[in-house]
Amino acid sequence: MSGSVFSQYTLSFEEGEIIYSQHEPGNSMFVITEGKIELSKQKGEATEVMAELGKGDFFGELSILEHVARTETAKAVTECALVVIHRGTFVKMLKSNMEIAFRMMQKFSTKLRQAEEKVDEFLNALNAFESETQKTRPGIVVPKEKKVVGKAVSLATNRVFILDSDDNLVGRYDPVTGIKPEVDLTYEDENRSVSRRHAIIFRRDNRFFVQEEIGVLNGTFVNGAKASPGGEQLEINDQDTINFGMLAFKFYLVKDDGD
User: pLDDT by residue (tens digit) across 40-98?
Assistant: First the structure.
């Protein structure tokens, strides 16, 4: 990080070190450039892990958006490096670049969806428990849903890119921020026709969609249909052709047989 413009704002934390604690005041947010952190909440005597975040994720934003105390405890899971953004700096960033605000809205939408999924899982487990109790059976077994995994195969090099996350950033490695996309096309894209943050491939209810990021110059296409920057998501089906800039890929769906 020594050559990065963010180096003067970067803090390092050791594995297990507390970044901030629940209920303490805060006036800054953090962006992860290296390592992983864990967010947890203390509920009575129990501690509940809310999320584990990695490179490119941000956290602590509520303290600068709503002037509230920290709503969770943040702890370094591994050695990590975090860019610290204070309230004043954050406001200047929003005024100078609306794309930052849009990307934060995307993150908030993801967090809200994940929270809704947890509520659904709880309600499903509760319904299963009530059903099993009525049958006087000991215990319950909730089958785990098999998730569909996607893969994009380069038509030029046959290189395979696995899409096994709910949100997969497509682009090129950014040496300034140190952020590497899940689908890293750095070595695939000799002509640099792909933006560093080019598109996001989403998995929702075992269906895949692609959405182009704001500021992309060379376009994103599914079977010739162009995606609009930050606009409506295009669905991707088995054996569809996807183009990112000058690069073409064949998309395949496979079953995830992992635990």
Answer: 998 888 888 888 888 888 888 887 777 678 889 999 999 999 999 887 787 777 777 76
Q: At what angle do helices 98-134 and 87-96 cross, to 10 degrees?
A: 110
Q: Which helix (H) or strand (E) holds 145?
A: none
- DSSP track, 48-99: EEEEEE-TT-EE-THHHHS----SSEEEESSSEEEEEEEHHHHHHHHHH-HH
Nearest 5°: the CA angle 95, 97, 98 is: 85
- The domains located in the chain, with CATH, are 7-96 (2.60.120.10), 99-143 (no CATH), 148-255 (2.60.200.20)
Contact 81, 33 (CB under 8 A): yes
Could you tell me which of 29, 228, 212 has the C-alpha nearest to residue 106?
Answer: 212
Strand 247-255 to 241-244 pairing: antiparallel
CB-based contact 209:201 (threshold 8 Å): yes
Q: Identify the three-state secondary structure at position 118.
A: helix
pTM to 2 decimal places: 0.50
